[in-house]
Amino acid sequence: MKPLTTKLVTLGIVGLFFSFSGIIMCFFWPHVFYKILSNELPLTPRSRIFEIWKDTNEIPMNMEFYFFNWTNPEELKIPGKKPNFIEVGPYTFKEKIEKVNIVFHPENNTVSFDQRKFWYFDPEKSNGKLSDKIVHLNVVAVSAAHKVRYWSFFMQNSLSFMLDKLSGIHIVKTVDELLFTGYEDPLITMGQMAVDDGEEIPPYDRFGWFYLRNGSTMFDGHYNMATGEDNLNNLGVMKNWNYKDTTSYYKTPCNVVEGSAGEFWPPNRDAKEITIWTADLCRPVTYEYTGTVMHKGILGYQYAIGEKTLGNSTKRHYPHDQAKYFERTTTTEDFFDAKHSTTESNENIDDPDTINMGQCYCNGECSPMGVINITACRYGAPGFVSLPHFYKADPILREQVTGMKPNETKHSFYITLEPNTGVPLDVAARFQINILVQPSLSVALFRDVPKIYFPIFWFNLKSGTTENLAWSLRQLLIVPSAGLYGSVILAIVGAIIVIIIAVAIYVRKGPKKLILARRKVGAFNGKKSEAVYMDTTITDDEHDRSSPSLQLKIQTRNS
Ligand SMILES: *[C@@H]1O[C@H](CO)[C@@H](O)[C@H](O)[C@H]1NC(C)=O
Ligand SMILES: *[C@@H]1O[C@H](CO)[C@@H](O)[C@H](O)[C@H]1NC(C)=O
Ligand SMILES: *[C@@H]1O[C@H](CO)[C@@H](O)[C@H](O)[C@H]1NC(C)=O
Ligand SMILES: *[C@@H]1O[C@H](CO)[C@@H](O)[C@H](O)[C@H]1NC(C)=O
Ligand SMILES: *[C@@H]1O[C@H](CO)[C@@H](O)[C@H](O)[C@H]1NC(C)=O
C-alpha cells in the first residue's frame, strides 16, 4: 500500500471509531450519569451533603406563625353568632435543625439519629412583637373536658366545678407565652395528678404550643432512615420510627412507618406523587403532582397536599408484599376479604387489594374532608390539622366561623423536587392547628357550645436550596445533556471524516473525471466552478505535521 492510502485508511478508521463511540455513548450515557449520582447522592459521613444535613444552619429556613385573634368570645353560646377571627402576624423565627446521636449502620445501609430544632425570633421579618396579646381559645380547658368524657360522673362534676371557678372559655396571652415560654394553668397540675394507669401524659407543667420544644430531641422521635448506598431507590426512605416499623396511633395498615424522611428522595421522580413521614402527625402524608415550576433556574416538579391526604375515604392500592403490616391474626387474603365485604355498596370492589383509608385513619368518628385527626398522636387532646384557612377543605368548616380566606398561593403545602436527581428545591410547609370544641353534657362550661373545628394558628415553614447548592445542581444537570450532545457531535464528526476520506480516495483514483464533471455542472448553471483538490502531502514533507494532510477547496467564480 502507498503511504498516503495508509494514512487515509487510518483516518477512516479513526472516523469510524468516533462514530461508533458516539453512538455507544448515546446509549450508555444515562448509566454514566446514574453512576455519578450513585456517588454523589447517598448519605455517608464522607458525602458532601452530610454537614448540611447534620446542621441546617446554612439553609435559609423561616418559620412564620400566624394567630387567629378571636374577636367575640362572649358570643360563642349565642345561637346564630359565629366566632370571628382576625389573622395576626407573621411572627417569624429562623429555624435550624440539628441531627444528633447519628449512627451509621453499614450492615443494613441505614442511619439512625434524633433531631432537635432551634428557633430564633427575627423581629425584622415579623409583623408584630412577641409581647402582642392574643385572644385564644382556652385549649387546656377544652382538652380536659374532652378527656374526662368517659370518666365517672363524680370526676366529671368536679372538673365542671373547677372549670367554672378557675377558667373561662377563652384566655388572653402573649405570642411568646402561647408559643415557647408557655403559661401555667391549674388544670395542668390537676391533670398530672389524676392520670389513668398506663396512660401517656404530656411531660408538661405549662401549656404552650412549642413549650419545651426549642433545642429538644424529645419531640420528633427516633429515626432510622435508608442511606441509599446499596440502592438509590432507598435514598432517604424511613425504615423505623421510635425503633419500630409501625405505630400504635392508627389501625393497620395505616400505622405503617413509610415514605421519605423529608430531606432526600431517590432520583428520577415521576409526575405522580411523593410520600413523607410526618412525625408531628405520627403518619405519612402524600403530596400529589401539580405541575412543573422554575426555581433558581432549575426546572422542578411540584407536589402538594391534596385530596389523597385530606379526604376521609381515600382508596389505596396495597401490594401484597406489604401484608406484613396487616393485622397479625389475618392473612393477606383474609384482610382483603374482610375489607372487601365492608366496602360493598357503591365502591369499586373489583380490586381486592384496594382499601379505604378512611377505615383506618378515622379512629372512631370520621372528620370532614380537609382536617386530619391527630388526637391519638397528641395525648388525647382534640387536635386537628388542616391547610391554613381550611384551604381545600369541606366548605362547612369555614362557614362555621368568619374570617377564613383560603388562597392557593398563600395556603397550599407544596414541595418542589428537581426530577432527575430528587433534590428538593423549594418547600412551603403550611399547616393550621384546630381544636374541636363540642358540647358536653356534664361540663357546664361547654354545655351549650356548638360543635366547631376551632382555628387556632397556622405556620408557614419556607425553605429551599442555597445559591451554592443550586449552582452545583445546575452544573450536575448539564452532565446528561452535555453527554448527549457530546456523543451526537462525536458521531457526526466521525461520519464526516469517513465521508471525506471516502471522497478523497475516490478522487485519487479519478480526480480528472470529477473535475470534468464539475465543470460540466458549472457550465450548466451558467457558472464556472472549479474544484481543486490539493493533497499537500504529495509534495510536502511526510513529517510536516503542521500542514494539513488533506485540503479540500472548491472555488466558485462567476463566469
Ligand atoms: C431557642 O434556644 C436558643 C439556644 O438555646 C436560643 O438562643 C433561642 O433564643 C431560643 N429561642 C426561643 C424562641 O426561645
Ligand atoms: C387581639 O385582639 C385583642 C382584643 O380585640 C386586642 O386587644 C389585641 O391587640 C389584638 N392582638 C393583636 C396582635 O392585634
Ligand atoms: C439496621 O440496623 C440497626 C442496628 O442493628 C438497627 O437499629 C436498625 O433498626 C436496622 N434497620 C433496619 C431497617 O433493619
Ligand atoms: C379523632 O380520633 C380520636 C382518637 O383516635 C377518636 O376517639 C375520635 O372519635 C376522632 N374524632 C373525630 C371527630 O374524628
Ligand atoms: C367525609 O367527608 C365528607 C366531605 O367533607 C363528609 O360529607 C362526610 O360526612 C365525611 N364522612 C364521614 C364518615 O364522616
UniProtKB/TrEMBL annotation:
Biased composition annotated in UniProt, kind: Polar residues: 547-559
Keyword Hydrolase attached: no
Record's keyword annotation contains Endoplasmic reticulum: no
A GO term for molecular function: scavenger receptor activity
Xref: InterPro entries: CD36_fam
Region described as Disordered: 540-559
Protein known as: Protein croquemort
Similarity comment: Belongs to the CD36 family.
Subcellular location: Cell membrane
GO CC annotations, alphabetized: cytoplasm; plasma membrane
Keywords, comma-separated and alphabetical: Cell membrane, Glycoprotein, Membrane, Transmembrane, Transmembrane helix
Record field: transmembrane: 12-34, 484-507
Coiled coil: none
Annotated Pfam families: CD36
